[in-house]
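Data availability (excerpt). The following record was deposited with the supplementary files.
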Amino acid sequence: MTFNEAKGLVTLLSSNDEEFLIKVLTVISNCSVYPANQDHLADAGCPLVLRDLIISPEPTVQVSVVQAIASLANSPKNQATLQVCIPVLLRNATDPEASPYLRALSLTALTNLSLGKVTVAPYIGKLHFLFKLLEEGNTIKIQALKLLNNLSLSPDMVPYLLATKCPPINGMLDNKGDRDITLQLLTFLGNVATVAVEQKLSTQDLPADDKAPSPEMLYSTLFGLLEKDVISRKMLSLLANSDEEISASAQKVYDVLSQL
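Predicted structure:
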């Protein structure tokens, strides 16, 4: 794709024909597989147009827009421009009345948008909705964990994650559980525990306005007197797992918890 071709596609996004608009958005999504095309679309102003289209009242258009955003968000050049879409994407992802496909796509878009520098503000007050997704089916659960993993790489985000109400996670840490879910959860726990230990975070350091009741916080799940022992035993069990990635990830969590 040349820059002029990208510019032509962006011009077509002004169409009022819903069926035609969906076709254009599909072409943009498909072309965005290639990094060079992502840059051309960025230079042509595509992310700016998508920011306006994401609030389309037409469900089919909105799905196609979110798909295009998810594709373009793989490029650092587009991520900054598309950050303003995060509130809408969060609303889609956590809305039980939205279609499963739109929810999964929105989580993918949020995950890609968090590949670079994480913007904390849009997530404040919303993280408990993301954690609740861990109680849903595997498709949504795995996408939510991928997003939480990216967020956990931001030291500024970790205190908010630790303050959030955490659903029961022990069942996801069984040797017989779904491999991808177990691995994603172990990576997440390892990330947040590492930052907490490095920054010497206590419950007093967590954001007061976003803090769940003490026994329900992720902080308590990891570092509570009784809960820490439960998680540590889970890690010891997973250390014997024949899957090297799971075993190594469990070792990381166990080693961090052992420092306390």
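Summary of structural features: The chain has 15 helices and no strands.
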